[in-house]
Amino acid sequence: MELFKLYVRSELVVVFLSSTYHEKPWTRLEYGAIYSRRYGNGDKDKNTLMFIKVEDFNCKELALSEGDGYIDATKETNENIASIIIKKWELIDQRSKAQAQGAISV
């Protein structure tokens, strides 16, 4: 269950969704851990998950709805996708540092 621990401890998880993502054994195992993180009782903020669509995928198989939000990489450049991921990481990192400083100063 090291994979599960990795997804739980990670500050940011980026999932690249393809048309066959839900069919492969490895990615089903991966998504099980991601699903647990997203809907479980853990203390991780759901905003630390990013879904990136690289081609059409089956929302129902992944228990996602159109409203769950994902970045459509088919309409963006690779550079823009990378920039979005970096910006998201920077926001999470800033929030983590602010929370750590708040805990120290209390």
Q: Can you count the beta strands? A: 3
Distance between the termini: 36 Å
Output the strand order for the largest sheet. 1-2-3
Secondary-structure-derived class: mainly alpha
Biggest sheet: strands, sense, closure? 3 strands, parallel
Number of domains: 1
Strand content: 5-15%
Outline of this structure?
With 106 residues, the chain is mainly α. It contains three helices and three strands. It is globular.
Structural overview:
This protein has 106 residues and is mainly α. It has one domain (2-105). 48% of the residues lie in helices and 11% in strands. It has a 3-stranded parallel sheet with strand order 1-2-3, with no helix packed on it. Strand 1, helix 2 (25-39) and strand 2 form a beta-alpha-beta unit. It is globular and about 45 Å long.
Protein topology:
Blueprint: H1 2-9, E1 13-17, H2 25-39, E2 49-53, E3 71-72, H3 78-105
Helix pairs in contact: 1-2
Task: Using brief descriptors, characterize the structure shown.
single chain, 106 residues, mainly alpha, three-stranded parallel sheet, 3 helices, 3 strands, 48% helix
